[in-house]
Amino acid sequence: MKTELIISDFDGTLVDTQEANFQAYKKVLSHFNILLTEDMYHHLFGMRLKEFMQYIGINDANMIEQIKEMKARIYPNYFNLIRTNNQLFEFIALMKRNGVKTALASTAQKQNIYNLLDYTKQSNLFDLVITGSDVMKGKPDPECFLSIMSHFNCKAEATLIFEDSPVGIEAAIQSQAQYIQIYKF
């Protein structure tokens, strides 16, 4: 069956933001006298914000919102630390030019994604962007992929997903779409 829809994860698949995120969170958390180590962050990378905050001992909703807002404000200062998967960006652009629908499915914060898409000059590449705030269940639940397929009225067998993380791969498998795992680029 012909590919009608490409869905890509964002972080770790199209861009590597781990160092930029680490530095931004480290800076914000230092304002609250919390030391975030590289090892700690590596273990937590990819978690939804609420789970990440709970893991480091922050349960206060107001404090979490403050951290989220502060991080969003300073995050662009660290964009120079981001690496892009240019080959995958180019492939998706080629497929889009050939009539394939394109979507992004990420647990990242919506504003962070749009800021990064602008920074990488890819803001027009995706027909649809789904973030963690758009779904009830995060990966490994396939809700984000199934929601995108439903939006485009596209069957799983006509969908190709690009993912990097074990939870993303599990979600792709559960969606019954074809997938390609992206390793470090």
TrEMBL record:
Query: Mind listing the GO molecular function terms for this protein?
Result: sugar-phosphatase activity
Entry coiled-coil feature ranges: none
Pfam entry (one):
HAD_2
Per its UniProt record, what InterPro entries does this chain match?
A: HAD-like_sf, HAD-like_SPP, HAD-SF_hydro_IA, HAD_2, HAD_sf, PGP-like_dom2
- PANTHER family under this entry? FRUCTOSE-1-PHOSPHATE PHOSPHATASE, GLYCEROL-1-PHOSPHATE PHOSPHOHYDROLASE 1-RELATED
What is the official name of this protein in its record? HAD family phosphatase
Q: What is the lineage of its organism?
A: Bacteria, Pseudomonadati, Bacteroidota, Bacteroidia, Bacteroidales
